[in-house]
Amino acid sequence: MADGMSTTTRTVTRPTFDASPADDADTRERVWARVQLARNVRRPHTLELLGLMAEDVIELHGDRVFGDDAALVGGFATLGGRRILFLGHQKGGEVEENIRRNFGMPHPDGYRKAIRIMRLAERLGLPVITFVDTPGASPDAASEERGQAEAIASSIALMTRLRVPIVTVITGEGGSGGALAIAVGDVVLALENAIYSVISPEGCASILWRTPEAAQQAAVAMRLTAADQLALGVVDEVVPEPAAGAHEDPEQTARAVREVLVRHLERLADHDPAELVEARYRRYREIGSVQLVGPVVRTLRPRKGVGDRLRELLAPARPARQDGDRDASAVARTAQSRPMGDDAGNDTQPPLHEEI
User: Pairing mode, if any, of strands 237-239 and 187-191?
Assistant: First the structure.
């Protein structure tokens, strides 16, 4: 595609956040239609989009530890005259290819390959573009044995401190930590029919509603559409798709994505690396709704020491004495200490027997 090519796209503005979305039949059908479009097998994936909007695409293979994961691809490309490194989930358009690519669900070696490529980008000073389209990381036993959780966590941690610009595009499904592992960007974009959530609607329905049949209701409650994510501040910009979806016109979709990516890369190129890392940190710290309340006044009882607690535990139970009882006891002790007799009032004490 020529560098000078451009396209006119309609703007998707940030909607007003609604804390209590409508949950009726029409809303469920509309949201579920987005979910189905995001999962469409004909939807363009990472390599298809790069082939339409970039030049000089060179794919890199292997994690230098275990092997090469076909579910997550990465390498060099040229976008708008700028050299970049790309990462992305890769699904297949046919059954055989989908099986080979594990339906876009990476194994630990896929995420370690992503870590290797991101470190290479930092050494070369090249921006990173990531394309997210996965239902989640591979959950099989082999992945767990090879350290799936550690690989995801290491990838997220590296992206938080990477000293080059990162732009993320959610092109289809953005599911759970498998998506977040390559989605910690300075700018997060989403195609109009993309979804982004911590779990699939079917999984959420099975946990909360005890049946996967409530998936449509779960999809509404999870606020997973691109418009909802934009209102929540998780996504920075929504890239419009053709009316029938990205799979109906991949070329138009690629032109729209390319235009937005070039714009954001030009803006981020002037930032100091330390400023990039700090702004990225603030971006993710500010995500979420927080309600500020007044200080809570609490009456703190005096803290007792170990000795006080032992005395209370070992002392015999007896009622507390009143002031009058205390005075009477003092008088009785004084009377017992004084000698009896005529000289009881005399302050001089009689001599002891030993002194006589």
Answer: parallel
Q: Are 197 and 236 in contact (CB under 8 A)?
A: no
pTM of the complete model: 0.74
132 contacts: CB under 8 Å, gap ≥ 6: 88, 89, 168, 169, 170, 171, 172, 174, 179, 182, 183, 196
Confidence of residue 93 (pLDDT cuts 50, 70, 90): confident
Domain at 25-284: CATH code:
3.90.226.10
pLDDT one-digit tens code per residue, 160-179: 999 999 999 999 998 888 99
Q: How far is the C-alpha of 308 from the C-alpha of 311, rounded, in Å?
A: 5
Indicate whether 7 pLDDT > 50: no
Q: Residue 345 gets which letter from DSSP?
A: G
Sequence-ordered alpha helix ranges (H) in the chain: 25-38, 46-53, 95-100, 108-124, 141-145, 148-161, 176-180, 201-208, 215-222, 226-232, 250-269, 273-285, 306-314, 323-337
d(CA 49, CA 238): 17
333, HSE (Cβ side, Cα atoms, 13 Å): 6
The token pair at 16 is 């007003």
Q: Would you list the domain boundaries of the chain? A: 25-284
According to DSSP, the β-strands at 55-60 and 72-79 are antiparallel
Q: Within 13 A of 146's CA, how many CA atoms are on the CB side?
A: 20
User: Taking the CB of residue 76, how many other CB atoms lie within 10 A of it?
Assistant: 19
Separation in Å, CA 269 to CA 126, 190, 196, 210, 264: 10, 21, 27, 48, 9
Residue 347 corresponds to which tokens in the numbers above?
């302050």
Secondary structure class of 196 (helix, strand, coil): strand
Buried (b) or exposed (e) across 216-234, using 16+ Cβ within 10 A? bbbbbbbbbbbbbbbbbeb
d(CA 258, CA 78) in angstroms, rounded, equals 11
- Kindly report, residue by residue over 176-206, the tens digit of the pLDDT: 889 999 999 999 999 999 999 999 899 999 9
Residue type present at position 259:
E
CB 198 within 8 A of CB 179: no
